[in-house]
Amino acid sequence: MIVTLDINNRPYEVNVRPDEYLLETLRNLRFFSVRKGCDTTSCGVCTILVDDNPIASCSYFTVKAEGHKVTTVEGIKEESEKIVDLLQKEGSDQCGYCSPGFTLTLYSMKQKLEKPTDDEIRNYLVSNLCRCSGYEGQQTAIKNYLEVK
Ligand code: FES
Ligand code: FES
Question: What is the pLDDT of residue 93?
Answer without folding.
Answer: 82
